[in-house]
Amino acid sequence: MNHFISGIIKIVLLEGSIALLLIDRLLSQAPARFERARYYAFTTLAGLMVFAWSNYGALRGNVTWLYVMLALPLILLVGWLVRAAFRPPPEQPRPAAEYDSLWGRVLRLGDALAPRLRKDRSIAVLVAVALVFSFVFVGVKTRAAPLVHQWEQFHFYLGAKYQKEVGWFDLYKAAIMADRETVNAMRTVVKTRDLTNFEEVPVEQALQDAPRVRAKFTPERWEEFKRDWATMTQVWQMDWSATVNDHGNSNSPAWSLVAHPIAELLTLSWENQAFIGWLDMVLMLVMWLFVYETFGFRAASVGLLMWATPPLVFDYLAGSFLRWDWLFALGMTACFIKRGRWATAGAFFGYAVATKLFPIFFGVAMLLRAAWEWRETKKLRKDWVQFTKGAAIAGAVVVGGAALMFGPSAWPEYAQRIQVAQVEKFYSIQYSLKTVFLQVVESSPGELATGWLFPAEIKQARPDVDIGHHAVGFLLIRLLFTAMIAVLLRRATDVEAFVMGPLLVFTWLTVNMYYWNMFGLMALGLALRKEKPFLGFLMALHVIFMTFYLYQHLNRGFSEGYAVGFLLCVALIGTTSWEWREQTAAKAAAPAKDAKAPRPAKA
Fold it and tell me: Are residues 171 and 258 in the same domain?
């Protein structure tokens, strides 16, 4: 679909979501008969945004329309299996009148099967997995579902399969060397990116250490790599010059611990790459089904809508290779916290941190919330201890397993890769408080007055601008923003605090825009909260992305990431001020504590 029209449609959907949130708040005490209307309104809006997110059903690679349409009843059936297996039995049976129709006979069959599924949940899980696997398998075999992101799979399939040989810095060099010995598809490539510093260099300069790179392969392994490379060039038509000027594979050793066996098992072919491309979609389906079952349709629908709202996520990642494993783990963590299964929640969280590191700030957000509770009660809840144990055990297993599989040097190399990403200069799809801070401190008052939202230049992109020159000031601003986030967490539940992690990621790290879909989890938490400031923050999140799409169509240059960051700062400051006033007012209105009773006099 036309890029401009697509953005307008998403703005309309976000406007509709804001209107629905306001109506829902005004009718919070509405009779139960309106519950079905609320259900259809929230789920339909979320479904439409997911439809828009997936390139309006076109997905990637000209997937057949019939295949997309068949996905909807499959999702509904799998969702019913999950609900039937994990939801407690109803307190009251259905009225007999509800069975007096064709749909009623379907309901009667479902009500008869549900007790059996609750009794033996493994049956429901196996049937659900079989249905999803069969759907993907048939689509791949008939070539009706070619969900392959070729660029991504070059980096992450080869990066996973040859993790021990290419690590984080030698994939491009190895590919160029293999190409020269085989198909010579990169004969016109003159530059590549040095992944140790993200600088473009001539190919011949990059290959000065070719003997070192080649020595990391055994002869058999090198021949296998060359075969995979030759197959890849035959299966896919790509601009290899642009490909080897990207930023490499950013996977962690923990990610490779899961991805490497899959890449080894599924040899490089069109069908296998299409199957791999669907793995993330299956993970997201499972996660959102659990979210709906755990949090209810209203909060889950708001979260799903915001998950599908950020731009570029589908275009950059759909059809890749396990690029949403961290998000799946965080979503499942939130579900199990809500269900009170703290050790399981901790295990998912431990994996999320090991596979992508920045999810640790979700745990920090919950830690800040725990600090507020400990300050008032001076008690350490057993729930937190179980969560910590689960996270530590799972993290240790994954980290240790990766070190055994890829060698102890894997983790230090990965730490170097993260550091390179953090010190890199600005580009338009970044997500960071640093961009906003540098824009403010490096601009004159006149520049700020005229370009506060539409700057003529992004200061962070200038070669003479260095965050190291403002180290103390930037640290103080980060601490101030962390304190503001802590204020927002004071009245939160554990799960509501956990999903506020994206704000701390924004404050302390730099990540790319295709991680913005973690705002879906934050929107879920905001939708759960009853206080007015958080409804305001939720609507502000909608407005931020409405502004992004409008901003993008005004051709204001490559500064969309700055615009989102600036508006997020404004929303955070405004919500914190509002919440602080609410907390102060509530504290003033609270009755004074009863004076302690005098001790009885000693006999």
Answer: yes
Burial of 314 (0-12, 13-18, 19+ CB in 10 A): buried
511 SS3 class: strand
Backbone dihedral angles phi then psi of residue 193, each to the nearest 5 degrees = -100, 130
Residue 199's beta-bridge partner residues? 194
Q: In the block, which residue shows the tokens 């204001």?
A: 556
Are 71 and 139 contained in the same domain?
yes
C-alpha closest to that of 553 among 6, 180, 142: 6
User: 3-state class of 200 per DSSP?
Assistant: strand
Question: Can you say how many angstroms the Cα of residue 201 is from the centroid of all Cα atoms in its chain?
Answer: 32
User: Mean pLDDT, to the nearest integer, of 477-498?
Assistant: 97
Rounded-to-integer distance, Cα 203 and Cα 217, Å: 20
- Confidence at residue 592, expressed as pLDDT on a 0 to 100 scale: 55
The boundaries of the domain holding residue 453 are 424-588
Taking all residues of the chain, what is their mean pLDDT, rounded to a whole number? 89
Are the C-beta atoms of residues 526 and 303 closer than 8 Å to each other?
no
Query: What is the predicted pLDDT for the residue at 92?
Result: 66
Q: Per mean pLDDT, which range of 76-85, 314-323, 401-410, 500-509 is the poorest?
A: 76-85
| Residue 140 near residue 269 (C-beta atoms within 8 A) | no
**Whole-angstrom distance, CA of residue 152 vs CA of residue 139:** 21
Q: Which phi and psi (to 5°) does residue 431 adopt?
A: -140, 100
Residue 252 lies in a domain: yes
The per-residue b/e assignment along 77-103, b for 16 or more CB within 10 angstroms, e otherwise, is ebbbbbbbbbeeeeeeeeeeeeeeeee
| Residue at 375 is within a domain | no
Residue 55 DSSP one-character state: T
Percent of the chain with pLDDT over 90: 58
Is residue 554 over pLDDT 80? no
d(CA 312, CA 227): 32
Verify that 488 and 509 share a domain, yes or no.
Answer: yes
Angle at CA of residue 299, ends 294 and 302, nearest 5°: 130
CA distance 323 to 340: 28
DSSP string of 411-443?
Answer: HHHHHHHHHHHHHSPP-TTEE-HHHHHHHHHTS
pLDDT digits (tens, 9 = 90+) for 226-282: 999 999 998 888 889 999 988 888 889 999 999 999 999 999 988 999 999 999 999
134: exposed, middle or buried (C-beta count within 10 Å: 0-12, 13-18, 19+)? Answer: exposed
Residue 91 pLDDT: 63
Report the domain count for the chain. Answer: 4
Judged on CB neighbours under 10 Å (0-12, 13-18, 19+), 549 is buried
pLDDT in tens, 24-54: 988 877 666 678 888 899 999 999 999 999 8
Q: For residues 9 and 28, state if they share a domain.
A: yes
Rounded Cα gap, residues 372 and 595, in angstroms: 24
Whether residue 595 has pLDDT greater than 50: no
Residue 596 resides in a domain: no
